[in-house]
Automatic annotation (TrEMBL):
Gene3D superfamilies: Clavaminate synthase-like (3.60.130.10). Keywords: Dioxygenase, Iron, Metal-binding, Oxidoreductase. The keyword Iron applies. Belongs to the TfdA dioxygenase family. This is TauD/TfdA family dioxygenase. GO terms for biological process: sulfur compound metabolic process. The lineage of its organism: Bacteria, Pseudomonadati, Pseudomonadota, Alphaproteobacteria, Hyphomicrobiales. The keyword Metal-binding applies. One of its GO terms (cellular component) is cytoplasm. Residues 18-281 form the TauD/TfdA-like domain. It comes from the Bacteria. InterPro entries: AtsK-like, TauD-like_sf, TauD/TfdA-like.
Amino acid sequence: MLMKRTISAVQKDTNVCADIEGFDFASYDERDIAEIRRLWLQHGVLRFKQANITDEQQVRFSRHFGEFVIHPKQLQEGGHPTHPEILVISNQMKDGKPSGALGNSEATWHTDTWFYERPPAGAILRAIAVPPTGGDTYFLSTYRAFETLPEAVAKAIDGRQIFFQNVYDKTGKLRLGRSEPKSQDFREWSGIVHPLVRHHGETGRKALYLGGTIEGSWIVGMPLDESRSLLAELWDHTTGSEDVFVQVWDEGDIMMWDNRCTMHRRDSFDPSYIRIMHRTTTAGERPV
């Protein structure tokens, strides 16, 4: 009888990622899932190197971490032909149309769908095809961003809320189902209010919550110029950290991140190369 492999996590040289060893996507039990969840909550980002699993295995594994969330891009160009749970991220063209979302451009620092009432708890991203260079993904800890704030700044944001407009995306395009606003003041647009410092729904730890852009964000109740200045300071503090994990992709790699306590971004890449990723997203709680 073969001995069951022990699941372990090898901490990388940052505070925000660990490599998982000993987990078998084809054969696991409730205890294995419980251990993955524990490690996920501990590290924020987990990497499974060259796991080379199927779409079916990805969907089955993801289901253990919550209900599926349909990403906005799945309603447009990123839908999967047979698995509605999967968002296809790709620059490949088929019949003159994009076969996936996001193309080959850079994706700047963000927390996923920060403009939702209940942003997702996590995401699982799997590499199907990768370019020889470019398209790297970067992760940072928003726990650490909060915990390393200067004392005066931490006091200034204590108990504050942040408003995110949800009419336009980061590229300036109208979001699905939205119409041009009548007011020039984005604070009067459709949007959502979240705490600027949120408590993680499972760990209880505090994390800075900046969303995805300064534009269209406002610290509620603060004069707009003061809000912009403070948000710029918070963004510089958070994204200027050297404590960032860089994922240089190999085919079959899987990254699993906790959207409640991390931010991520993606490098652009040469459009003559094909990059295809399959992503599943799990539901989270409303930030408090």
